[in-house]
Amino acid sequence: MSALTAVTGFKDKLALYWMARTEQERKFLGIGGAIALLALVYSVLLAPALEGSARLRKELPLLKQQKAQLESLAKTAAELAGQTPPQVTPMSRETLNASLTARGIKPEQVSMTGEYAKIQVSGVAFSNLYAWLEAQRLENRISVLEAAITVPTTASPPAGQVDATITLRQNADAGSR
Questions:
Q1: Which residues lie in coiled coils (predicted)?
Q2: N or C: which end of the chain has fewer CB within 10 A?
Q3: What is the Cα 137 distance to its own chain's centre?
């Protein structure tokens, strides 16, 4: 009951304070209280809603554009998922020799053992060898299993020239790209 007595005491003090004011002071306090209440309602309820609405109106065109892009990408992905992956040329001694020669790389030895190939090259530009390996990975799904790359032991090897022994394997599944 102490809470009830405290509220009653506060109410009595407020009524006493209000009665001690003149009519003009009561009018000013009433108008000031109403203005303070309106400012509080506006700042707590209306202003955030109006600002959020303006922000959403500004962002809506961008969101619609992003939605259209996502729908286009989803349609493209669905079309690509329905396609069969392109067939790659099976790895053979002849295809490896041909692709190396096309890049200007002269292999010393190309040996095939089942699905594995071992290639030895000497005195080739590392950048050219790397570009060939990357092309084989992308075009024929051939991956490097093992590579031993060394700088030639001649007196003054040309800059960027390497000797390499590389073991390759062709991946048959489409997900290996």
A1: 53-83
A2: N
A3: 24
pTM for the predicted model, two decimal places: 0.52
Sheet with 107-113, side-by-side order of all strands: 107-113, 116-125, 161-170, 142-150
pLDDT at 1: 63
Say if CB 120 and CB 165 are below 8 A apart.
yes
CA distances to 54, 74, 150 from 61, rounded to whole Å, are 13, 20, 57
Sign of CA dihedral 45, 48, 52, 53: positive
Q: Read off the pLDDT of each residue in 170-175 and give the average, rounded to a whole number.
A: 66
79 three-class SS? helix
Q: In this structure, are residues 170 and 91 in contact, taking their beta carbons and an 8 Å threshold?
A: yes
